[in-house]
Every structure is written in C-alpha cells, then in structure tokens.
Write a structure and sequence with these properties.
Helix content is about 50%, strand content about 15%. It is α/β, with parallel strands linked by helices and about 575 residues long. The longest helix has 25 residues.
Length: about 575
C-alpha cells in the first residue's frame, strides 16, 4: 500500500514509530427471541455473574490506576453506573416481565439512556452517553462470551488503531504496557482523552477513515507533535522520522537533565515559565523542576462536568488547594470561559447561530452576574491562602474590563462586611484574544494589572479561520504577520505601562515558535504540562545571536517569517 497521511488532533504529544494493530469494535451476538419461563432464573444468574465479574475488574483497575486522583473519578463513575439501582431494577424487570434475555435487556435499557442523553445535544450529556456506552459494552462482552477486545499476545512496539477510544479501553491499554494509539473518532476533552493524558499514552484522534484504511502489520508513524499519522511511509520518510525520533528522545533526556536548572537564556535573560492547568489535570503535573506557578487555570470545567452548579464553598476549596500547592508562586485563575463550544447544561442559554461570535467569555459572565459573583467571591477568599491573580477571558475593550472590575470590587465589599479574609490588592488582568483588545491594549494596560495573550482565539479571530475546521488548516497560521503585529502591539503597550504581558496560548507550547517568541521579547510564558520540560530546554539554548536574528528579521512578510521560524531558528528548537 502506498504511503498515506492523516491529519487529526493531538490528545497527548509524542512521537512513535511502530506496527499497526487494529482493535475491532465488538459484534455482539444477542439472543433476540423471547426466553421461556424455565430460563428466567438462568438469565438472572447470568446477569448477576456478569455484574460481579465486571465489578471486581473495575475495583482492581481502580486500585492499579496510576493516573491523577482527579481522573480516577472517571472510572469511579463507571462503577456507579454499573450499580445504578434504577437501571438494574429495570433490566431485571424486563427479563422477568418481557421475557428478554439478559443481554437484550441490557442493550435495550442502556441504549434508551444513551439516546436520551445524545438527543439533548449538550457536551456534558454527550459525555455521559459515552460513559454509559462503555459500561454497556463491558456487560455485553460478559453476557455474550465474545472475545476480549485487547488480544493477550500484544507485542512491544505495536500501535493500537481504534474507531474510538473508551475510558476502560484506554486504562487497559496502559496496564498492558501499550505506549500509543490513534483513533478515527474522538475529541480532546473526552473522558478517554483525559485518561490518555493521565496515563501518559501518546495519542491522536479524529483521523478520518484511518480505521478503514489500516491493516494489521502496516508500518505506522504517530507524529503527535504535528498532529498527523503516516501510514506505510516510503524509505525517505521513514529514515527522516527515525532520525527525528532519535532527536526527540535525546531532547526529552536533555530536558529531564536540565529540569532543576534556572529557566534563563544563555545571555542571562530570565524567563518565567508557568503551567496551563484545568480541573482534569493533576496539580502535581510537573514532577521535576520548579514551575513559576500557574499562568492559566481554566475554571469552566467546574460547570461543564457537574450535575449541579458549583457553589461558592466548593469553588473556594478548589482554588485554595491550587493556591496553597504553588505558593509562593502565583496562580492565575481565569474566570469561566463559557459560551462558544463550551455550553453548560446547568445554565439556560438561547441557541446562537454563531456562538463563537456570541455570548461567551466575559460577555457570558456579565450576562449571568450571580454566577460570576459566586466565582469571584470564591477566588477572592482563596487569595488569602496564596498568590492568586484573576484573569478575564474574551475582553473586547476597556468597557468590558471596567464592568467586570466593578463587580470584583463589590464582591470585595461583601467579603469585608462578612469579616472574610482576601487579598485586597489581588491583580486583575485580561486575556488578549480578540483583535480589538490587542488594538486597545495600551488603554487596557493603563487600568489592568497584567495581560495574557491567548493565541488560539487571537489567530482564529484575526484570520477568520475556525481552528476546529479541518478544511481551514492552511488558513489557521499562528505565525501570520497580522497575528505577530497584534502580539507586538500588546507587548509594547504592556512595557510602556509597566505591566507584565505573557502568552498562555498553544503557541507558547509549540517548540518551533518558542525561539521566535523569546526573540520578540516575551519574558513570561504559560505552557501545557507535557511541554514544560522541553520548553525549558529550548529557552536555555537561546542566546544573544537569537535576539539579533529576530530583531533584524522582516516580520511583515509571511514567507520571511516562515524562513525565519522553520530554517534560521531551527537549531534552537531542534534539540
């Protein structure tokens, strides 16, 4: 078969070359005709035995789970589904009253719940449907006696190829020593993806038609650095990636060796390198080194992954924990960035024709002031236990910032009246992710305490290119001169007013862009935990020549920028 390339989304970064092995979807052989009265007891016993076996397996997997404690809850929720009394009661009733086989009763009842969740067209309930699907498949596997999805003769160096990853499957892959997988379907925020990162599996998803194309034994390259899979590479491509793999492994070793060294360039420029975290990320994400705190703590997952709205006390406990963990370094709490593709089922919202240009970020917060005040009060209270900063997403101009600041001050007055402690000088900053905010950054810098550039949205809003649209990949260009000009404008505004400007978007985590950003003068970066060590190693390679090269470069020409980033600066990130 000729070489083919598939573009997808990176679930967890890495680079792997191996042999493809398909894990086919189960085909259940379910008894459809009605059972007879004499078979009732046997079917009930069969159900009970399957429940007992799966329960024991789940409990064993929970004990052996090596990921973050917060991610363990995903598997614990599956145990709750398995033991749900209402669901089990209905399944048993259908066996007795409808004379369904145990497998048919399980399929019918689980499918009904999944269809109900899916019809709600909400990301939270879609994830719940996925969890029920996982448990359903495990039960049907036991009840039908089908073969195990993961073969016992799995060999080192094999890469799992899936239609779609499920949480229990990801956990089993990790326990069997599988290092990597790719999937035709999937998303970055799914429970399976969260577990993949927690269990350190290199993974790619959303690779169109890869499952139908790959054959067992095919050579497969997972480039989960650039987001592509290469099937049956030709000799030149294979040699290229074998060299890249050696360099990548060497760079990882170098990064680990330099973990405890200062984060500074060779000419002595100190760079603050912080972490981007969310509620599904282990607080001990970076085991080595000493991150300069948290530059972006995403809070919307408090709302997206819950069955009730988080109250002030529960949020306070979450924020306090992370503030204490990273003290004396600062933790920047971004107020919830709901709207767009992140809509909570807990908050009634009118449908929007174009949600990315609608009520999202700070607009959403100002439109739901009571929710906003609850979060602000919780974050303010946490500021008494560490260095907490507050950051507002999707600010368009000064008007947005002043409206939010007024609410923050009102919350301070409330807490003071109650005698509750907080930092009265808590820094209040803005995310620069809308072009208007970058163009108004000097005015914003006069009033705010800091600014942080969210490159993901800044790129898509500047270039009118949906970053999730596979057909617009060529238009979504992070290094486009228009984007760099907006970033430079923001940096100059911050420097003029003496306000810190950081970058917390994906650009800061991408090795090829890091030397450019350092050379442009950015001294504060916030990156994904998986990229932290590598980013630190790259920073430590930057020298005086780098600053001279970038200073003289033509940043008004796309072709000149591409020559700069991908050719002239390559020695700095090609470790």
């Amino acid at each position: 078969m000729a070489m083919r390339s598939f573009n997808g989304i990176v679930i967890r970064p890495g680079l792997v070359i191996g042999e493809a092995r398909l894990l086919k979807t189960q085909n259940w052989v379910i008894r459809r005709h009605h059972i007879i009265q004499d078979e009732l007891e046997a079917e009930q016993n069969s159900l009970n035995a399957a429940l007992a076996r799966i329960r024991a397996e789940m409990e064993q997997q929970l004990q052996a789970f090596k990921g973050a404690d917060s991610d363990r809850e995903i598997l614990e929720s599956h145990l709750l589904i398995l033991d749900d009394p209402e669901m089990l009661g209905q399944i048993r009733a259908d066996i007795t009253d409808k004379l369904l086989s145990a497998a048919a009763a399980v399929e019918e009842n689980f499918q009904r719940v999944r269809d109900h969740f899916t019809a709600l067209e909400d990301p939270y309930f879609a994830q719940r449907a996925s969890d029920f699907k996982d448990v359903q498949h495990r039960l049907l596997h036991e009840l039908t006696g089908s073969s195990a999805q993961i073969p016992q003769d799995w060999q080192p160096g094999q890469i799992a190829v899936l239609e779609e990853a499920e949480p229990s499957l990801v956990n089993k892959l990790a326990q069997m020593g599988v290092e990597a997988y790719c999937a035709e379907h999937g998303s970055y925020t799914s429970h399976a993806s969260i577990l993949s990162r927690s269990l350190k599996l290199t993974a790619l998803a959303s690779l169109p038609n890869i499952f139908q194309t790959v054959n067992n034994g095919d050579t497969l390259i997972l480039d989960a650095l650039q987001g592509k899979a290469i099937l049956n590479p030709d000799a030149d491509t294979l040699n290229l990636y074998q060299d890249l793999l050696k360099k990548y492994q060497h760079s990882q070793e170098t990064a680990c060796q330099e973990a405890e060294l200062p984060t500074q360039t060779q000419n002595g420029q100190r760079i603050k390198l912080r972490l981007n975290l969310d509620l599904n990320t282990e607080l001990e994400a970076v085991k080595q080194g000493n991150p300069d705190g948290v530059g972006l703590y995403r809070t919307e997952f408090l709302y997206l992954g819950q069955e009730t709205l988080p109250d002030e006390e529960s949020q306070f406990q979450v924020y306090r924990r992370i503030a204490e963990r990273y003290a004396p370094h600062s933790v920047t709490i971004r107020t919830f960035d709901l709207g767009g593709d992140k809509i909570s089922h807990l908050i009634p919202s009118a449908p929007e024709e174009n949600p990315y240009l609608g009520l999202r970020g700070i607009r959403f917060s100002l439109a739901h002031q009571q929710l906003f005040e609850t979060q602000i009060r919780a974050a303010l209270r946490a500021s008494a236990f560490g260095r907490v900063k507050l950051m507002l997403p999707m600010v368009a101009d000064l008007k947005d910032f002043l409206a939010a600041r007024e609410i923050v001050h009102a919350c301070m007055d409330q807490l003071a009246a109650q005698g509750l402690a907080f930092d009265p000088d808590i820094p209040l900053g803005v995310m620069i992710e809308i072009p208007s905010a970058a163009l108004c950054s000097e005015e914003l810098a006069v009033h705010c305490d800091f600014m942080s550039i969210g490159t993901n949205d800044l790129v898509q809003y500047t270039l009118a290119a949906d970053r999730n649209h596979s057909g617009l990949t060529a238009y979504y260009t992070s290094h486009h001169p228009a984007v760099l000009k907006l970033m430079q404008t923001t940096l100059m505004a911050g420097e003029k007013q003496g306000k810190a400007v950081s970058i917390c978007g994906e650009m800061a985590s991408q090795a090829e862009y890091l030397p450019l950003l350092i050379g442009m003068g950015f001294k504060e970066l916030s990156v994904a935990p998986a990229s932290w060590l590598n980013c630190k190693a790259i920073i430590r390679r930057c020298d005086e020549d780098l600053f001279k090269i970038v200073k003289k470069a033509d940043l008004n020409s796309l072709s000149a920028i591409e020559n700069l980033v991908f050719e002239r600066l390559k020695p700095y990130y090609n470790l």
